[in-house]
Design a protein that fits this description.
This protein has helices at 5-23, 67-71, 93-118, 132-140, 156-160, 165-173, 205-220, 238-250, 270-273, 297-312, 353-363, 369-390, 417-429, and strands at residues 147-149, 226-231, 254-260, 289-293, 318-323. It is α/β, with parallel strands linked by helices. Helix 6 packs across helix 12 (369-390).
């Protein structure tokens, strides 16, 4: 039978719809890095200046009050090394020199550990090159009772908290004096006295853990704050969002940092954010959010002090994007020349954090190139002496290593019967 008028209209409409659908081609949008190997690296010059952003009252500040701070960039040191603006913490020369010393110590320590790795005395290592300021400035801004939940680029926090360098090297080697008894990878430090929680290999887990401990401190009425860091790549993990959600709802005393160092293992930050801004994510969770120059010691110290004051008052969490650059490889197993432009770190607008703080101290007449050279030579000798002392307790190639008994210890107060049976069997095999 011939189609009715209504059927013909529906048929024509269907044909039009199908034709329209055929014209629409769904494509997956895959962000890429601004420059690849062989390209000339370049970054837009920063227009943000130290006086641009106000310093709101940390006790009453809301997320909405930090909209400009999330989309801007908190700075204290300008391009000439002069400190100014409302975020200037007015630190004493002694405090600035202490910060400089910790950063230099971390860089020289990293260099020595990499040499150990390249000569087979260490299995694996990850440097903090270009990011030394992050752990040093932010840890110095905390109280000693505050908890540190780091990633693998905040080992310098242990220097601020007074950890012995020999102990750190023994852990990296995994010898019999390793305080973790060989249970962790190198650079996955744990330092109980300094409240430095062990790094976990699955990325992003420390965000949720820090919020949980902060909630426990809050519940107990303790004057404690938790600080944690996550990389730009790891911010794509679920733990990041779980932590922000709990921080928004329960308002625990926690400082949540995204260290945007431009690169995950081999993918650009664009792949994790879809844009150039991570700080603004916190606004949607109703958490005050700030973007800060991560190579500016004074700015980082000031923002962290502000966040700590806010946490201690009961006002809740602060979400911070630390804008910096990973100058070195991701790890001793990585070759960045395979995925990023050569010498990209040299054109980074934020410069080198050590050079910037040194230049500031020199500009105010409280430091000199001669003093800098003496500092570096002294720390180099200190690191070398620590290395020689650490290898007395064993090295990677020859041991001695922690006892295999440690497989069964320090987990249960009373060892369950089935584990005791396995332990006894291991002893029998050893002839005990």
């Amino acid at each position: 039978f011939p189609a009715s008028p209504h059927q013909r209209l529906r048929q024509e409409a269907g044909e039009t719809s199908m034709a329209t659908k055929k014209k629409r081609v769904a494509t997956i949008q895959v962000p890429t890095s601004p420059a690849r190997p062989g390209d000339k690296p370049k970054f837009a010059a920063w227009t943000n200046q130290p006086g641009d952003l106000s310093r709101p009252d940390p006790l009453t500040c809301t997320a909405a009050d930090t909209t400009d701070h999330a989309h801007g960039l908190v700075r204290v040191l300008d391009d000439e090394g002069k400190a100014s603006g409302p975020w200037n913490p007015d630190l004493s020369p002694d405090e600035l020199r202490t910060g400089l010393e910790h950063m230099v110590r971390m860089r020289i320590f990293d260099d020595r550990m990499m040499k150990m790795q390249r000569t087979g005395k260490l299995s694996f290592y990850m440097r903090s090159l270009g990011e030394e300021c992050v752990a040093v400035a932010q840890t110095m801004a905390l109280e000693t009772q505050d908890w540190i939940f780091p990633t693998y680029r905040q080992p310098a926090a242990q220097f601020v908290r007074g950890r012995d360098m020999v102990s750190m090297i023994c852990h990296c080697i995994g010898n019999e004096k390793d305080n973790i008894l060989g249970r962790q990878m190198p650079v996955h430090y744990s330092y109980r006295t300094g409240r430095y929680i062990s790094v976990s290999s699955p990325v992003a887990t420390q965000f949720s853990q820090a919020v949980g401990v902060a909630m426990a401190s809050q519940y107990k009425g303790l004057d404690e704050c938790c600080i944690t860091w996550i990389g730009d790549g790891a911010s794509a993990e679920g733990d990041y969002h779980y932590a922000l959600n709990f921080a928004s709802v329960f308002k625990p005393p926690v400082i949540l940092n995204i260290v945007n160092n431009q690169w995950a293992i081999s993918t650009h930050a664009n792949l994790a954010s879809g844009s150039s801004n991570f700080a603004a994510r916190g606004l949607s969770y109703d958490v005050p959010s700030i973007r800060v120059d991560g190579n500016d010691f004074l700015a980082l110290y000031s923002v962290t002090t502000w966040a700590r004051e806010r946490a201690a008052s009961g006002a809740g969490a602060t979400h911070i994007e630390v804008l910096t650059y990973r100058a070195g490889a991701h790890s001793s197993s990585d070759d960045p020349s395979k995925y990023r432009a050569k010498d990209e770190d040299e054109v980074w607008p934020g410069g080198d954090p050590i050079e910037r703080l040194k230049a500031h101290l020199i500009s105010i007449g409280k430091w000199s190139e001669e003093q800098q050279n003496e500092l570096e030579e002294g720390i180099d000798s200190e690191v070398m002496a620590a290395y020689k002392e650490a290898v007395k307790f064993g090295d990677l190639a020859n041991g001695p290593y922690p006892s295999s008994d440690s497989i069964f210890t320090e987990v249960y107060e009373d060892i369950p019967w089935h584990l005791q049976e396995q332990w006894d069997e291991m002893k029998r095999l050893r002839g005990e």
